[in-house]
What we know:
Helix content is 53%, strand content 13%.
Amino acid sequence: MLKILIADDHAIVRQGLRQIVAGNEEMMVAAEAASGNEAIQKTRETEPDIVLLDISLGDRHGIDVLKQLRREFPKLKVLILSMFSEEQYAVRAIKAGAAGYLNKQSAPAELMTALNVVARGRRYVTPDLAELLADSVNEDQGELPHKNLSDREFQTLLHIAAGTAPNEIAQTMSISIKTFNVYRSRILDKMQLKNNVELTRYVLENSLGM
């Protein structure tokens, strides 16, 4: 029987996912986690076959958690389940080692399909994500400045554009104000922008908003 770990910071979402998984006799929920650090710890304790991982966790960003899980457990299958559209994080998640990316608005049947595909050792890629992956390979990286940002810089960019205060961004990302300022400086330099207003305009124009 396949063991599933559900990592989401909303209890009602975890309950719904547990009910969906319970509909498959070949799967069971081995553990639940409400934060990124808890997801890592529960993975160490229960050794699940698949982790259902949310992008937005209270203490750490899902991409960071994904990278650590992949470092510690190279064979672990991680399926990202997020409220964010595929345009925002899917390609970055796949490149970081995710076995698939699914929007939370997807039907329960699609989630079960994704779990079955991932369980067989394959990646679950929707047609939209396949197109994004193809574009990411073929496009000139300099054409879209945000593609040159690291994952942490990209997260910082979205927080700034959302109007989040620097102190809150630093706390959310578990970094110091000094590190936040370094990220912001790098973002402005790489994207050749002057200030937060221009950053926000870029995010809105490219539909990257959180």
